[in-house]
Design brief:
The complex is a heterotrimer of chains A (120), B (133) and C (500).
Chain A: H1 2-20, H2 25-46, H3 72-102
Helix pairs in contact in A: 1-2, 2-3
Chain B: H1 4-27, H2 35-53, H3 55-62, H4 66-82, E1 96-99, E2 102-105, H5 106-132
Antiparallel strand pairs in B: 1-2
Helix pairs in contact in B: 1-2, 2-3, 2-5, 4-5
Chain C: H1 2-21, H2 27-53, E1 56-59, E2 70-73, H3 75-98, H4 101-105, H5 108-124, H6 128-147, H7 152-183, H8 188-197, H9 201-219, H10 227-231, H11 237-261, H12 267-290, H13 295-316, H14 319-350, H15 361-364, H16 366-380, H17 386-400, H18 404-430, H19 446-468, H20 470-485, H21 488-495
Antiparallel strand pairs in C: 1-2
Helix pairs in contact in C: 1-2, 1-5, 2-3, 3-5, 3-11, 3-14, 3-19, 5-6, 5-11, 6-7, 6-11, 7-9, 9-11, 11-13, 11-14, 12-13, 12-18, 13-14, 13-17, 13-18, 14-16, 14-17, 14-19, 14-20, 16-18, 16-19, 17-18, 17-19
The chains are: A mainly alpha (120), B mainly alpha (133), C mainly alpha (500).
Keywords (chain B): Cell membrane, Membrane, Transmembrane, Transmembrane helix
Domain Na+/H+ antiporter MnhB subunit-related protein (chain B): 5-124
Main location (chain B): membrane
């Protein structure tokens, strides 16, 4: 199972790199989204996919009968997803703003902050 | 969006979402759930309403600026962490007050803060994005 | 104990909340300054405690390490927290003169304070995943600060800053996740033992390289620095001053922490790479600066070249070299922030930051010229200013190892730094203004004059004091380096004596 998830994660990362190499900001963003999902999957796989009961205590603190699943990778993931969501939302808003400002999304043509050399 | 079904349904669904979000917020202490997921569900209710009736109507229904809700949520969360100073414990240590069968705690206060922070932050983002489109 | 550690992080966030709620009135500005004063007090208490007791550690929520979130302060962390508070207060005061009501209503002060909170958190945390969270907190605040002016060039700079930093973030997350998968812990003190005991050292080096790329991107080392000169000259001057002082240094701090505490198993590989990276960083930064003609762009490229010195100290990994890196880190934050603040005043007086379009400041604003000399020559490494000692220690450490090439590059870069500084001096201060303008400090409104000049003078005085009485500071840095190179005290403070 881990192998499968690892392969899927690798596939996502490969796809994302292809997308991110594009000069278009929108494609780059989609690549970034795929990349963070790929990494999230990698963390899940690195934490080992164990079948087990949810790590919750029963009434009066009774332990569940089976082995409990490791909750930490999922907690890490949840945090990472939330943060990734926030950052992605900001990046999306920035992209819209950039499109309004420049009229295009080609990063190679965004030269306002770093104009090409013209002075002798 | 001009859909009669959505705009009629959204009014009821939004109320249902908010109620369920409170339920999830409160049951989180013994079962899966909590402030974060509750905040998401509550925000989803208002997002649905904003799809159906427009951002302007959703803002009016909310009455308060979502940014202010988020900031107050952060304030509540931080203050609940400060409370343990009174009992001279480590920061963010949970303090419990057991009244008969009802267990109240600073952990719950922290969760309410998280609920509001998530609720406010998500709505700020979604409203801002919808308005730019 | 934990409260001493937690308050420097909590105060900025409480201040951020206050500043946001009061953002429509002048009270918001005052809340920001007041909160910065409170942070400074908390930082002083923390450093006093650290000087008194050595490394101190505390747990959040009473959960024991390595399971809970740990906060740790050794000499380096405590000093970084203090410097952050000093910079925070200086820039908060300086902002009063630059940040208008429009930016304040947008939440400038709240973002600024949460940036400081994130930076402080990153310096104090003892948990790798928590470090990631603090990186994100400061990153998202910095995004907000970057676009707050709303100018075209700021959007342009922000696009590059945001995209490249997001990649670094994802790499950091991947490294932390894989490290957890391989060792089962994320507590940095616990990781030291766990990484050393791991049967698969190759995997550890791989993860170390992922983290090196992630932190290196934050620290703006060669060849990962392109976002910095693309964005640092675009926002408000107050924003670029605090960015220049603190943000890249968080990356350097993370490198220092991780590559002295956790990944020390394969020094011949990891630190050799750091050595070459540092040399190329110094050279490309300073050469990039030589080609620029904009006040802030020159300073931005110099951040990069100076980062090279700090990484060099880490790469050499001798007690003297690491001490040099610590000292460099502390001195550089003060100097760099001050230079950006001076650039801000110069822009306000002369109306531009293009060096060919300004001038005349020496004649009409001699105080500003004198104040520019101090950090500029300190940056270049003139005795007896603070930068001289920093460079002296690093060069000395490389000579001790017989690394003649390294020492030569370090000295050459110092020389080229003087070239850039004299260029700014000649263009902005010495020559007459091309339009015949007579920019004088008296042109500023009275309140703005005070708000801008007092922080600059205070920071310049600090530079002079560090340079004139270096022994106390060098001794402090020596102690910090000892703790970094022999983390037994750090590990013991976090995990308790038994598991040392």
């Amino acid at each position: 199972m881990e192998t499968l998830v690892a392969c899927l994660s690798g596939f996502l990362v490969a796809t994302s790199i292809w997308l991110m190499l594009s000069g278009n900001l929108m494609r780059f963003l989609f690549g970034l989204l795929l990349l963070s999902n790929g990494v999230n999957l990698a963390i899940l796989a690195a934490g080992r996919l164990t079948p087990g009961a949810p790590p919750l205590l029963g009434a009066k603190g009774a332990l569940p009968p089976d082995t409990m699943a490791n909750a930490l990778p999922q907690a890490l993931l949840l945090t990472a997803i939330v943060i990734g969501f926030g950052l992605f939302a900001f990046a999306l808003a920035l992209t819209i703003r950039a499109y309004r400002t420049f009229g295009h999304l080609e990063v190679d043509r965004m030269r306002i902050a770093e104009p090409a050399e013209e002075r002798e | 969006m001009n859909s009669l079904i959505l705009s009629v349904g959204a009014r009821f669904l939004t109320a249902l979402f908010l109620l369920f979000s409170l339920f999830v917020l409160l049951r989180g202490h013994n079962s899966p759930g909590g402030g974060f997921i509750g905040g998401l569900i509550g925000a989803a209710g208002f997002v649905l309403y904003s799809f159906a009736a427009g951002v302007e109507a959703a803002r009016q229904a909310l009455r308060v600026d979502p940014r202010a809700i988020g900031v107050w949520g952060m304030a509540i969360a931080v203050l609940s962490g400060l409370a343990s100073a009174l009992a001279s414990l480590d920061p963010f240590t949970g303090l419990w007050l057991i009244l008969a069968d009802l267990a109240l705690s600073t952990v719950l206060v922290f969760d309410i803060g998280v609920y509001l922070a998530v609720f406010g932050a998500i709505l700020t983002l979604v409203f801002a994005l919808e308005e730019t489109l | 104990m934990s409260w001493v550690l937690a308050l420097p992080i909590m105060i900025p966030f409480v201040t951020a909340v206050l500043a946001f709620l009061l953002r429509r009135s002048r009270m918001g500005d005052l809340a920001s300054v007041g909160g910065s004063v409170a942070s400074l007090v908390a930082a002083v208490v923390l450093i006093a405690e650290v000087l008194d007791q050595g490394v101190i550690a505390g747990q959040i929520g009473g959960w024991q390490a390595p399971f809970g979130i740990t906060l740790v302060a050794d000499h380096l962390s405590a000093a970084m927290v203090l410097i952050t508070a000093i910079i925070g207060l200086s820039v908060a005061v300086w902002s009063l003169a630059e940040i208008g009501p429009t930016s304040a209503r947008f939440g400038y002060h709240a973002l600024f304070q949460s940036l400081l909170g994130g930076v402080t958190g990153a310096f104090l945390t003892g948990d790798l995943f928590n470090l990631y969270v603090w990186f994100e907190v400061l990153l998202i605040s910095s995004f907000g600060l970057l676009v707050i002016g709303g100018r075209k060039s700021a959007i342009d700079g922000a696009v590059k800053y945001v995209t490249l930093n997001l990649i670094a973030t994802v790499l950091f997350l991947a490294g932390a996740g894989l490290l957890y998968g391989a060792t089962g812990t994320l507590n940095m003190a616990d990781l030291r033992g766990a990484v050393a005991a791991s049967p698969d050292q190759g995997l550890m080096t791989l993860i170390a390289m992922m983290l090196m790329v992630a932190f290196g991107m934050k620290a703006a080392v060669f060849p990962l620095f392109f976002w910095l000169p693309a964005s640092y000259h675009t926002p408000h001057y107050a924003v670029s001053a605090v960015f220049a002082g603190l943000l890249t240094k968080v990356g350097v701090y993370a490198l220092l922490r991780v590559f002295t505490l956790i990944f020390v198993g394969d020094l011949g590989y990891t630190h050799e790479i750091l050595l070459w990276v540092s040399l190329l960083t110094m050279l490309t930064g300073v050469l990039g600066a030589a080609a620029q003609s904009d006040f802030r762009k020159i300073l931005s490229f110099h951040i990069i070249s100076q980062i090279g010195y700090m990484v060099l100290g880490l790469a050499l990994m001798t007690p003297l070299a690491v001490m040099g890196a610590v000292f460099y880190l502390l001195h550089h934050i003060i100097v760099k922030t001050n230079l950006f603040l001076i650039a801000g005043v110069s822009q306000r007086l002369t109306g531009s930051s293009d060096l060919y379009a300004i001038g005349g400041l020496y004649r009409t604003a001699p105080l500003l010229a004198a104040l520019f000399i101090i950090p500029a020559f300190s940056l270049a490494g003139f005795p007896p200013l603070s930068g001289f000692w920093a460079k002296f220690v690093i060069v000395r450490a490389s000579l001790d190892l017989g690394e003649w090439l390294v020492a030569g590059v370090a000295l050459l870069v110092g020389l080229l730094t003087i070239f850039s500084m004299t260029k700014i001096w000649a263009e902005a201060f010495w020559k007459a203004h091309p339009d015949g303008r007579q920019p004088a400090l008296a042109d500023l409104p009275r309140s703005a004059r005070w708000q801008m000049m007092v922080p600059i003078i205070a920071l310049a005085v600090m530079t002079v004091v560090i340079g004139a009485f270096p022994s106390a500071f060098l001794e402090f840095a020596t102690k910090g380096a000892e703790q970094l190179l022999d983390p037994a005290a750090y590990v013991a403070a976090v995990l308790g004596e038994a598991r040392r």
